[in-house]
Amino acid sequence: MNPLVTTSWLGQHLRDPGVVVLDATLPPVGITPAIDTYARYLAQHIPGAVFFDIEKLSDHSTSLPHMLPTPESFSRSMSALGVGDQMTIIVYEQEGVFSAPRAWWMLRAFGALDVHILDGGLSAWIEGNLPIDAGQVERESVPFHANLDQSAVKDFAEIRQLIAEHAQILDARSSGRFSGKMPEPRPGISSGHMPGATNVPFTELLKDGRLKSVIELSEYFATKGVDIAQPITTTCGSGVTAAVIALALTVVGAQQVSLYDGSWAEYAQRPEAVIERNA
Fold first, then answer.
1. Is 0.90 topped by the overall pTM?
2. In this structure, are 8 and 80 located in the same domain?
3. Choosing from 90, 236, 265, 268, which is the catalytic residue?
4. What whole-number distance in Å separates Cα of residue 80 and Cα of residue 72?
5. HSE of 188 in the Cβ direction (CA atoms, 13 Å)?
6. Which residues in the chain show pLDDT less than 50?
7. 236 is catalytic
8. Which PANTHER family does the annotation name (predicted)?
9. Same structural domain for residues 92 and 28?
């Protein structure tokens, strides 16, 4: 099944007992004061949706942002949210495409087999005059057994090996950060890029608040010299928008896609890391 589902599909299946809907909206980066996306969820959400808090569900034993938790921790969290084994999971965000793909990737990495993104998110749902609820949603706890797919995630040692092998690495950061001409948003971290990486700014995969069409995405990846038949690893600043590339690659049929979880936040801090900058 396509990783994207339409609002009409969800409208028809919203009350199915095997369907669970998750709002996985992170605050947009660089906006002060920060937007309270949980408050926005409480104000309006798709009926029955629960809030998938990417920040709270990440590993807090590390200083790196948004890292995957342990399978045991993720299992407990999903069970508490009412997300069970074998359920059809629909993830959305309140507007645009930014963080919902990270939730989609996390769930898939931990073994969920039937996970999808709502095309157009909450904005498309509202534009379709579909019902909206407000307030907290409590679901009954159900079993969820997370089993990490090691092939889905790369660490620093593996990314260095991929660089040495001249493997396909796609970086979702802006062209300015990738080239080294613009600073990183995290203090003390140099901009630039990994040797051999290809810049694929995640915003170039989007149009009108959603992913571009399959044809447009295929043409875009072709112009970047990406071979979707070969393994591809995605990266970004903190592992969030790398998942936007992973989603787009899955939409166009790529089968061997992994994500560097530490991403630039980890790589640029390692003294042995090689950083290139454009002249």
1. yes
2. yes
3. 236
4. 13
5. 5
6. none
7. yes
8. SULFURTRANSFERASE (PTHR11364:SF27), THIOSULFATE SULFERTANSFERASE (PTHR11364)
9. yes
